[in-house]
């Protein structure tokens, strides 16, 4: 997994109270662990499936990559096997890649390949790993087609499978950490990067050095495959150095409010001007793409297992994210910002309403540990789905449905391990989780993030603070604004009223040098129609 966390960290947290805007939803999510004997851990892999069995290709056998170039993405962590898993029978089979041509062996040992299954064929694009041919770590410029049913059968029976692999070279597929998805008949290669050499947190000009080039693009192509010849026709591409400068994100198939197929690029890393995740999203459809800055996603910023569902009756698109890594997490009802971008347990849902408005909810259920980054959601093949594999929520059978499985990902011993990582603080998870959906119209969905739904758009900074506080807010209606400062026990420290404030954006510059340092305070803005509170840490 090409996480490549920040070269430097800002060691502070900001707290936001979560809103008490609990909503009801037409379903709830639950997870149930299951184990298969002798199944190893893996993360950032590709998968295909047929008749209830999974084919696992590529990925890493270890946890979070280390900071030292000599240890980062080492050969011991490459997955040099094909793995077949039967979750119903609780069995697994493996076969080495050594019978395949060298170029296919090298690519299919890579991590963070883009992949997509169309019918019987699993298409694997790019990926990052070691190439003995080039004598270095590289991003591969190949597309490999795998005939999934035949390969699964061959691995299970110990027979030859070389005839079921084909490969072409195309420099436009030299991408890792991006995603491939489809809208109608066209394929979309979204985001990602080209990375050549060993990762070094000190930058590309230190030690052995490396090349890192974000694609900053969405590339559209057609793929024709007659079982013998693969033909690629590159079509439109979009380049956006600011908004498409992202990788290791979740690109999820969607049914848009107009009923058409689409893709949403959720979060990802890193922003061009700061080593932090994106909070906005990019909506892609057959006509182009649009950046949605009115939506802010606080959880699940890195690639993780994702389940998309569409409710045709209410015209609502639900996307459920399972764990991973994020800049924010919940701590006893407060949304905590941690710019070290920790591992999290959060399971969250983003719902797109009929008018296009998107809202994020933290679900009551959590992952049982700090895991999920680089995991995959492997759907139940029997579920009713649209052509783009979005689940038809209204056609699910029964009250409780097995939606699929979560497999693999990084399991971390602590939220922030990057700067102490010696290879023992995390591992690739071998855990499988069954994911169930229960239909119930009165279950609580969870709390919407107040920063998401609060029209005051309150923001306090800097935080932590040393005496000069800025408070930004936005008024949708004119009126008086009350500012209060309380301690964490609720005792009032001071209060003031700003009279006759107009519609629009405002900033308060508040002198707080007189307040006691090394303490936390609650800063509240209140109007006749809404109220917002945020926590402030005052330092010396």
Characterization of the model:
- The protein folds into 3 domains: 20-35 and 248-453, no CATH class; 37-236, no CATH class; 455-538, Immunoglobulin-like (Sandwich).
- The strands form 11 sheets. Strands 2, 23, 24, 27, 28, 30, 31, 32 and 35 form a 9-stranded mixed β-sheet that branches. The protein has a 4-stranded antiparallel β-sheet with strand order 3-4-5-6, covered by helices on one side.
- It has 3 helices and 42 strands.
- It starts with 12 loop residues before the first strand and ends with a strand.
- With 540 residues, the protein is mainly beta.
- Residues 1-22 have low confidence and may be disordered.
- Helices cover 4% and strands 50% of the residues.
- The longest helix is centred in the N-terminal third of the chain and has 10 residues, at 148-157.
- A hairpin with a 4-residue loop joins strand 41 (519-526) and strand 42.
Give me the secondary-structure category.
Answer: mainly beta
Major sheet summary line = 9 strands, mixed
Q: Number of domains in the coordinates? A: 3
Oligomer: single chain
Helix content: under 10%
Mean pLDDT: 91
Summed up, the helix count is 3
Alpha-carbon distance between the termini? Answer: 39 Å
Radius of gyration: 24 Å
* C-alpha geometry: globular
Provide the β-strand percentage band.
over 45%
Q: Count the strands? A: 42
Low-confidence stretches: 1-22
